[in-house]
Amino acid sequence: MRVDVLTLFPEACQPFLESSIIGRAVRSGLVEISLTNYRDFTHDVHRSVDDRPFGGGQGMVMMCGPAFDAVEHVTQGCETPPTMILLTPQGERLNQRLVEELAESRHLVLLCGHYEGFDERIRIGLKAREVSIGDYVLSGGESAAMVLIDAIVRLQPGALGDEKSAADDSFSHGLLEHPQYTRPRSFRGMDVPEVLLSGHHAQIEAWKREQSLKRTAERRPDLLSDRESESGEQA
Ligand code: JCH
Question: DSSP string of 87-111?
């Protein structure tokens, strides 16, 4: 998979993309991630990437020129059209279903904005999808792009190493994860639940399932109704 990140702050993204699971996936050639600065595709002496909004209003808007030129630069010579994504608070809400869909793409182009957002013609002209990582306002799209890349890269076969499968995680089965414990058995008067030490595999699995359902019902009842309407699978 190839991912192009278009940003005004490539230096802010780079350390994240070199770390941990993503860094390993990049080094092993599983994914190729490139950072491109809009600033390198400006047309004036001031290297402007933003301008005042037509019709008035506060703040500045990302201009079409640098965005289109940067996209054309990263997509030249591509045989199939890449999946274009604008990170914005107005987009389709990111969830694991959308992550799984985007993870199938051969080439993603992620456009990170700043100021008050993008000139609408960037979305229209690039036929870009708009994605929001949640209902809160960030100051720019970079952190949202890093969230999206993280969620997508770990789904690439081999990214987590052979021992672990992304299919084991919360959300892939539509429930929150059960509580987990490691050594020591007792810490400051708090003990690991007896069943986990019992060695009874079936009882342990039943406990995990019960805890997952309990947590999901308490914290995220919306997930339980999503599961019923999506699959008909029974808890
Ligand atoms: C962004 C902004 C629109 C402030 C500029 C670029 C994404 N899920 C999510 N939350 N926030 C973002 C995001 C992504 C890119 C940009 N801003 C600041 C944008 C606004 O409309 C009122 C306000 C925020």
Answer: EEEEEEEP-HHHHHHHTT-SEEEEE
- CATH 1.10.1270.20 domain extents, the chain: 173-231
List the catalytic residue out of 24, 69, 89, 220.
89
> Which among 5, 60, 88 is the best mutation to test ligand 1's pocket, defined by most ligand atoms within 8 Å of the CB?
88
List 116, 120, 210, 230, catalytic entry: 116
Grouping H, G, I as helix, E, B as strand and the rest as coil, residue 209 is helix
pTM: 0.95
| pLDDT attached to residue 167 | 72
Tell me the pLDDT of the chain averaged across its residues: 95
DSSP β-ladder status, 129-132 and 83-93: parallel
CA distance 50 to 65: 10
Percent of the chain at pLDDT above 70? Answer: 95
What are the distances in angstroms from CA 163 to CA 8, 166, 205?
38, 10, 19
Q: Which residues line ligand 1 (CB under 6 A)?
A: 87-89, 113-117, 132-134, 136-141, 144
Residue that the structure tokens 């869909």 belong to: 101
Q: CATH homologous superfamily for 173-231?
A: tRNA(m1g37)methyltransferase, domain 2 (1.10.1270.20)
Distance between CA 40 and CA 120 in Å, rounded? 21
Mutate to test the pocket of ligand 1, among 63, 138, 142, 146 (most ligand atoms within 8 A of CB): 138
Lookup: tokens for 85: 């994504």
Catalytic-role residue among 10, 50, 119, 154:
154
